[in-house]
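Q: Sequence in, structure out?
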Amino acid sequence: MPSGQKALAPRLALVGDRSQHVQAHVRIPSILTALADFEDLHVDAYWVPTNEVEDSGLEGFDAIWLVPGSPYRSAAGAVAAVRTARERSIPYLGSCAGFQYAMVEFARHVAGLSDAGHAEADPDCSALVIVPLSCPLEGQRVVRLEAGSLAERVLGADETLGRYQCSYGLASAYTNTLHAGGMRFSGVDRAGGIQIAELPGHPFFLATLFQPELSDVNGRLNPAIQALAQAAVLHHRQGRSPFTLDSGPVEAPV
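A: Exactly. Output:
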């Protein structure tokens, strides 16, 4: 974990059940070191197991990253992490399962689907918002970004190359309901499948079905991770994010 400015650094919650068998988990410590060494973005990161989220409430964190690694020990804890970020305007990044549970949380608490669920954790749920993909996503694929979206501003292009290890995705039957509730779907693959979601009006809320922690861009850390760290710094110092869509040009890293 980054060191040196602990008292001044923003606090990042890495919500997930840490395992040496999950590639993303193994890579995250080196990502945090690279953020500090090469981007001058210092965050004080803590792993928070999903089964501890409901009790702690994630108080005092400046950003929340719901990392891959499902099935989580506590699906309820994953949902609680997303809800905390959404309702308290805490910068949020959800990758892979972090995308999936962001959709479940929003469906339950905003879009009126109180029985929304994830097929992996609750296959008998009456409103399966997240379902098994007919063809699991592995390797890389191109994702097209919606013009004017947070995703486009963060990634700095009209498309990106996502890296996947994913077997579940958003059920098409519920996309209109979530969209009507305020969720913006800002990235799709070439077949039209939803790969990125965001919340307009939130300081920083980005969910990707791909795993940005597994892919660099032009030899540098994925911009989505840099953006989360920068949003955490701004939240810590000023209570705002440089990536809010109505805030004008994206500011340089702190």
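The chain is about 30% helix and 25% strand.
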